[in-house]
Amino acid sequence: MTPVLAAEQLGRVLPGEVPVTLVQEVTLAVERGEFVVIMGPSGSGKSSLLYLLGLLDTPTSGRILLDGRDTSGFGEDELATTRLQKLGFVFQFHFLLAEFSVLDNVMLPLRRLGALAEPAAQIRARDLLEQFGLNEHLHKRPHQISGGQRQRAAIARALANDPPIIFADEPTGNLDTRAGANVRQILHDLTRDFGKTVIAVTHDLTFAKAADRRIGIVDGRIDPNWQASLER
Amino acid sequence: MSIQLGIAVTHLVNRKRPTLVSLIGIVLGVAFFLAVSSLMRGSERDFIKRLIDNSPHITVSDEYRNPQVQPAVLRWPEGAVEVRRVKPLHEVRGIRGHAQKLTFIESLPGLRAAPTLVSAVVLTFAGRTQGVTITGAIPAKMKQVSTIEEKLIEGSLDALAANSNGIIIGVGLAKKFGLSMGSVLNVAATTGEGRALKIVGIFRTGNASYDEAQTFVSLKRAQSLLDRPNRVNRFIIQLDDPYSARGVAALIEARTGYKSVSWLEASEDLMSVLFVRNMIMYSVVSAILVVAAFGIYNTISTIVMEKTHDIAILKSMGFHARDIRWIFLAEGVLLGLIGSLLGLLLGTGLMRLLAGVKLKPPGASELVHLPIYWGYEQFLLAAGFALVSAVGAAYLPAHKAGRVQPVTILRGMG
Q: What residue in B sits closest to A42 (Cα-Cα)?
């Protein structure tokens, strides 16, 4: 079966007087519905790898295959459209737009895609927020709700267009234990109940243990020893 | 409302103060642009109207634009000897075959023509003399091509037909010589011919030199006085459409051979002064809008700078670079549109205010209103220029916003 996402000899070097290697020779494949966690020391290139896999950054070597389709020939517009339809992002900070209500934030990707008419899009956004226990806060601005609620709203926004893959960059890194556990559970449920593929970067071992697979990254490349230590 | 427009509106509404400052700049720019240009265009049109009303639209004179080719040159174009200044021994000046030429001119649509004989004469009264211009005209025809009948403060043009020894003079000359209706003065032509003429009309045009140096007699009297029987040396033509004068004059000149000067050609120096004046006026009022555009540039640039994170997030969500550009261009368009609309309203108010102002210019006997031009094209020009300035000011920040690389921002925020 074709993996939903695959990387072949992926590399990313930042140009400059002294070029900086962020990611090198990463080859991996992620199956549909899999919950994969990327771990490693700070500055090891975990987030850089996530941005490459999420088509937010362009590799300097290697290629990324999405549903078996090579994305290296994609132009900026095609990459954006792919992100809009197939990929969802959750970051360490919620990154909700401060001037919009919680509901409007979730509506943003729906409105941009335009696949649903306005009333249907409203229903979809409300359903998602209700699912994450935010039905009381639909019309509040992000600063009027708690950190955990904001992160749940951000997950709802990432799921708005029903993308098959969700990328999460330290999604619990800025939350207290209880809110972190809640977000962790939501992401876990996404794979189990909704068949989504979740690829997350985290330092949180509890989070990592709940994943189907853990990938260890050291100095921008997959380190089997780190991976083995995680499995223990 | 599109999502891009929705975001643009939210950005502007949430930054009330800078948005208001940018708007005020555009509103004042448009209002002053409109008020000043309407005043300048109004005075220009008023000036041109006076020019058109008070002078012939076309004057055909017994002159040639280029010297006529000598018969010897026509016969022997390659001849080795050139014969210059070959002239008839006795030449009576005037338009040859004027009756036929007048018939042709009058056959053209949308015009009226009057034949005249114009010359310089010397006027004598009570031992005082003055050189004046005498115009011999047919009163009925003259009334169709000139406003002189309206300028008569005493007498009438028809009196010239009733009294063959009648003369109409200007109020300046009348005052200078102490003349009044019925006074008799002597007029001497350059041929030596003289005649006593009775004043049957006095006009006032407001142009001092004209009122002092212009006189009118009947055409027959002028022909007899100047010893040019059955001759005219000028056709005065008025058009229904004064702005077609240049083309009609060219046609008449081509057909008659005589120099035919339109009012546009005769007033070329004045028209070029008006053109330069308009250029200066539009440069000054446009400068106000350019300054206002900098306000918009500043506002939108600040929003782009403040919203770099939001732009990165929108792009990570799948917004295209052009979506982001549209958001900020839409902000410029919104500021331009609202500013133009309010500016047009304020400008209209200013125009009404200016139209109500009464002034007494030096030398004028009555109060006059400031001339305001209400043509729609000025409203379009003011709003259009403001809109173009606003979009131009928004373009650079919008372009910059579209080029934001989300990963660069996300790395910095992580």
A: B414
| CA–CA min distance A92, chain B (Å) | 7
CA-wise closest residue to B409 among B328, B305, B339, B281: B305
> Which tokens go with B19?
């948005």
The pTM for the full model equals: 0.72
d(CA A101, CA B357): 53
Domain assignment present for A6: no
The phi, psi pair for A24, rounded to 5°, reads -145, 135
A57 and B320: CB-CB below 8 Å?
no
Distances (CA, A) of A209 to A44, A213, A228, A232, B229: 20, 9, 13, 10, 124
A49 token code pair: 């790898």
Number of neighbours of residue B284 by Cβ within 10 angstroms? 13
Angstrom distance (rounded) from CA A171 to CA A179:
10
Is residue A60 one of the residues assigned to a domain?
Answer: no
SS3 state at A37:
strand
Contact B413 A91 (CB under 8 A): yes
CB B55 within 8 A of CB B100: no
ipTM metric: 0.89
- Residue in chain A closest to B309 (alpha carbons) equals A95
Residue with tokens 């050139």: B82
CA distance B409 to chain A (A): 11
CATH number of domain containing A85: 3.40.50.300
CA dihedral sign, ordered B396, B399, B401, B405: negative
User: Which residues of chain A are under the pLDDT cut of 70?
Assistant: 94, 227-228, 230-232
Q: Could you say which of B10, B11, B319 has the minimum Cβ distance to residue A80?
A: B319
Provide the pLDDT for residue A60.
93
Do A84 and B314 make contact, defined as CB atoms within 8 angstroms? no
Residues of B in contact with A80 (CB under 8 A): 315, 318-321
Number of domains comprising chain A: 1
The two tokens of residue B354 are: 């200016």
List, for residues B272-288, the tens digit of each pLDDT value: 888 898 889 888 888 88
CB-based contact, B247 to chain A, within 8 Å: no
Q: The tokens 């058109």 sit on which residue?
A: B52
Q: What is the pLDDT of residues B114-164, one digit of tens each?
A: 999 999 999 998 888 999 999 999 999 999 998 888 889 999 999 999 998
Query: Is there a contact between A17 and A204 (Cβ–Cβ < 8 Å)?
Result: no
Let me know if residue A5 belongs to a domain.
Answer: no
Q: Enumerate residues 172 to 231 of chain B having a beta carbon within 8 A of any beta carbon in chain A.
A: none
Q: Residue A96 sits in which domain range?
A: 32-55+74-231
Least confident of A8-17, A19-28, B27-36, B404-413: B404-413
CA distances to A174, B138, B161, B168 from B151, in Å: 91, 17, 18, 11
| Best of A42, A51, A52 to mutate (most B CBs within 10 Å, chain B) | A51
The domain locations on chain B are 3-52+270-413, 64-69+92-258
Residues sharing a CB contact under 8 Å with residue B305, sequence separation 6 or more, in sequence order: none
